[in-house]
Specification:
The protein is α+β, with helices and mostly antiparallel strands and 89 residues long. The chain has one domain (6-84): 2-Layer Sandwich (GMP Synthetase, Chain A, domain 3), CATH 3.30.300. Helix content is 21%, strand content 36%. It is built from two helices and four strands, in the order ββααββ. Strands 1-2-3-4 form a four-stranded mixed sheet, with helices on one face. The longest helix is centred in the middle third of the chain and has 14 residues, at 38-51. The two termini are 25 Å apart.
Length: 89
């Protein structure tokens, strides 16, 4: 669990696009379309990415970062997905 009702499922590296892709599963009360506002979530993720020193090597190399949030009840449902490129961080 990375936060209440948010579980990290996996992380992959997409070589062709130089993208680190994080997959999360929303559970409980967070597993619904109106659980959060996309603008606010985008700002929180972008600020976190900017301030994460452990990713500095990847940021210096110009990697992209994608975050996908899926429903636990219906894994085919993607509640939110966003990609950040080096212009974002």
């Amino acid at each position: 669990m990375v936060a209440p009702e948010i579980m990290m499922d996996s992380m992959t590296f997409e070589r062709a696009t130089h993208t680190i892709h994080y997959y999360y599963r929303l559970t409980g009360n967070s597993d619904r379309a109106d659980a959060f506002k996309k603008d606010e979530a985008t700002k929180v993720l972008k600020d976190g990415l900017k301030n994460t020193t452990s990713l500095q090597l990847y940021k210096d190399a110009g990697y992209n970062f994608t975050y996908t949030y899926r429903s636990e009840k219906d894994p085919k449902t993607v509640w939110m997905e966003m990609t950040f490129t080096e212009k974002d961080y």
